[in-house]
TrEMBL record:
Every Endonuclease/exonuclease/phosphatase domain range: 98-291
Keywords: Endonuclease, Hydrolase, Membrane, Nuclease, Transmembrane, Transmembrane helix
GO MF term set: endonuclease activity
Transmembrane segments: 28-52, 59-77
Protein name (record): Endonuclease/exonuclease/phosphatase family protein
Keyword Hydrolase belongs to the record: yes
Organism: Rhizobium etli (strain ATCC 51251 / DSM 11541 / JCM 21823 / NBRC 15573 / CFN 42)
Amino acid sequence: MRDTIFCVMSVLTTLVLAIISLRYVKDFYLLSLFYSFQIHLAAAAAVASGIALLFKRHWYALLTLGASMVLVVHGIVMTREFVEPAVDESRPALFKLLSFNIENDNFANGADIADMAIGSGADVVNILEAEPVFSELPRLLKTYPYYVGCGVGMEQCDTLVLSKRPLIEPHIRSLGLLWRNRLTISTIDFDGQKVNFLAAHLTKPYYDEFHGLEIEDLAEIIPSLPGPLVLAGDFNTSILAPDVQYLMRSQGLGTASLEPATWPIAAGPFGISIDHVFSKAPLRLKSVRRIKSSFGSNHFGLMAEFILDP
């Protein structure tokens, strides 16, 4: 019986480790969700290896335990690679951004989400799958009189960017080949300092290779926007995904010290961050925090503060 349990635990652990290790050989889109959960799965494999050792002391369980710990540590290293230096708390923020995928059938909470956005103190609000707040737009425009999306620049109401300050030359374009009009590009002047804003909604990474094509489009667009830049939205994958790693590295994007988990809702702080706020120098993130409630969405929203380096 002990040998049987050991064998089952070892086989399951080996399969998990093999799946998440394939990223080091090839970025296979069907396994992208597993790549995003690398730390979670490797930690689970380490626990399983430890349990296997309790039933039978064998070199193979020690091997899988060691491999699991290596994958956990490397996953943590990858999440820390793009962290920007900490900002003095006393330093005032240049502006605040609220980014939230509210889920396109979440109509019961549209009014509450609008109330939250109005009272958030954010200078810019990025709402994805925004149809539930479309009826609240007149109220939102009293606080955020400038916007793009939901009838302005697009017929659909997937992406909505609201601002307290004028949006300079806002426009909307498509990413990849699957969905249309899921990227808004605009510039906002903060007392003489112009900042480029990109609000993106990427497709799920296991839908063929569309996610990778969308990342490639972003990698072409970002260099065409000189100066401080914000890229925020729903990437449907964590920063551990190989294509997101490529985007961050090739475009010099940075993150806060700890990206809050935004999905799945039931996992709370033990989930993963598939909603991101990235910055590009000389703009830097002062903080990123998760808003307290999901307001009925299947994502948590993010509130970010930014500063500008000389």
